[in-house]
């Protein structure tokens, strides 16, 4: 994917195209993304502190909610985990709340790790622009490195005098114009490169492209209508607390959390009660306790759709949006299956996904009747 050229900046854009050619850690992506964010907010002079806070907030959801691996010894990932451990910030918290916390945080380890993040990426990011900077030219003090880089020409940004986290970068006017003019292309290019990087480090994780930011509101209306129809035909008990579900308190749960699967496939969805779903959050239900119960609930649904025309019609409406594999549909929902056959087919689909989520760090969960554990 090539970036658009620009008058008087043809060489510079060629350098920009190589920004992520050599990336062993995730810092470059988040630093560049932070620059884009701040420039598009109208800033062209930005402190290290502002940029690092943006990086943490942008990585927050990926690390805490999606459990993505950012790199073998990634300081940004470790910093996010540390902040998650010392704060009361939810994994699903909005970016603005994370930024507000960082502005007020006085934790010494947070300050130290934030400063560590500034030792290399502000300088190394522009390495493709500086063909004369090789080998030992990088192995000098920060102050001397800044002075050396500031003598280069055609850079995207230059530095103020070194002043810890208050050191500033000054985005050049031609680059401010380029970013504003080509912002959507730049965002797409950055997203593409970030996906390629993260997929290599998270090979078993599905839906990486959907995990670069907090999810949009998910639409499960059709699935909810399907289960509400079943509620009208007879009592339905949810699988965690064995409680009867009503139309007023029904909630659709992803058995394997959405934050891992990043899809709304019908075979992973089932009804529960709102307070139980909230308690479960993005944890993994204990397999030994709950999977057999899930099978029985889903088999009840399967029997109803094959004996009641209105249920089959509602299922087909759901399937058009929430059942995207004909192969899986043929295995789980073909007619004539016994409970044992249905359960085996469902397990063949769900168990590998469940185990992969477990391997990625999603926590085991058992409903206790209050807040779960």
List the helices and strands and how they pair.
Blueprint: H1 10-17, H2 27-40, E1 45-47, H3 48-65, H4 75-86, H5 95-104, H6 108-117, H7 121-124, H8 142-149, E2 157-159, E3 168-171, H9 173-181, H10 183-201, H11 221-233, E4 250-254, H12 258-261, E5 269-273, H13 274-280, E6 284-285, H14 287-305, H15 309-322, H16 326-332, H17 339-359, E7 364-365
Parallel strand pairs: 6-7
Antiparallel strand pairs: 1-3, 2-3, 4-5
Tell me what the structure shows.
The protein contains 17 helices and seven strands. It has 373 residues and is mainly alpha-helical. The two termini are 46 Å apart. It is 53% helix and 6% strand. A hairpin with an 8-residue loop joins strand 2 (157-159) and strand 3. A three-stranded antiparallel β-sheet has the order 1-3-2. A two-stranded antiparallel ribbon has the order 4-5. It is elongated, with a radius of gyration of 25 Å.
Proportion of residues in β-strands: 5-15%
Helix content: 40-55%
Gross geometry: elongated
Order of helices and strands: HHEHHHHHHEEHHHEHEHEHHHHE
Total DSSP helices: 17
Oligomer: single chain
- Strand-pairing-aware structural class: mainly alpha
Cα end-to-end separation: 46 Å
* Strand segment tally: 7
Rg over CA atoms, rounded to whole Å, is 25 Å
On the 0-100 scale, what is the average pLDDT?
A: 92
Reported for the largest beta sheet, the result is: 3 strands, antiparallel
Widest sheet: strand order? 1-3-2
Defining traits:
mainly alpha, 3-stranded antiparallel β-sheet, 373 residues, elongated, 7 strands, single chain
């Amino acid at each position: 994917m090539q970036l658009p050229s620009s008058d008087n900046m043809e060489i510079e854009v060629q350098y920009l195209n190589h920004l992520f050619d050599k990336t062993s850690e995730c810092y470059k992506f988040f630093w560049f993304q932070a620059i884009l964010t701040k420039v598009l907010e109208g800033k062209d002079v930005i402190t290290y502190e502002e940029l690092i806070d943006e990086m943490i907030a942008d990585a927050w959801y990926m690390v805490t909610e999606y459990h993505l691996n950012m790199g073998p010894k990634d300081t940004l990932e470790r910093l996010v985990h540390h902040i998650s451990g010392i704060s009361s910030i939810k994994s699903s918290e909005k970016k603005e709340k994370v930024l507000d916390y960082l502005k007020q945080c006085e934790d010494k380890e947070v300050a130290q790790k934030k400063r560590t993040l500034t030792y290399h990426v502000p300088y190394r990011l522009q390495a493709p622009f500086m063909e004369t900077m090789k080998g030992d030219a990088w192995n000098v003090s920060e102050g001397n490195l800044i002075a050396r880089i500031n003598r280069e020409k055609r850079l995207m940004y230059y530095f103020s005098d070194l002043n810890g986290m208050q050191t500033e970068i000054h985005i050049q006017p031609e680059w401010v114009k380029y970013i504003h003019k080509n912002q959507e292309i730049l965002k797409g290019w950055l997203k593409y490169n970030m996906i390629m990087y993260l997929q290599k480090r998270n090979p078993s994780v599905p839906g990486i492209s959907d995990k670069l930011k907090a999810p949009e509101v998910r639409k499960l209306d059709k699935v909810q209508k399907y289960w509400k129809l079943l509620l009208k035909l007879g009592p339905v008990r949810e699988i965690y607390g064995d409680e009867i579900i009503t139309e007023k308190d029904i909630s659709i749960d992803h058995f394997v959390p959405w934050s891992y699967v990043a899809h709304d496939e019908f075979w992973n969805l089932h009804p529960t009660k709102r307070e139980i779903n909230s308690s479960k959050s993005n944890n993994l239900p204990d397999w030994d306790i709950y999977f057999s119960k899930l099978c029985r609930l889903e088999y009840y649904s399967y029997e109803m759709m094959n004996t009641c025309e209105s249920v089959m019609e509602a299922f087909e409406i759901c399937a058009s949006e929430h059942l995207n594999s004909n192969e899986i549909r043929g295995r789980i929902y073909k007619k004539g299956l016994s409970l044992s056959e249905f359960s085996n087919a469902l397990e063949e689909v769900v168990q590998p996904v469940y185990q992969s989520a477990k391997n990625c760090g999603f926590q085991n969960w058992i409903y206790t009747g209050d807040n779960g554990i």
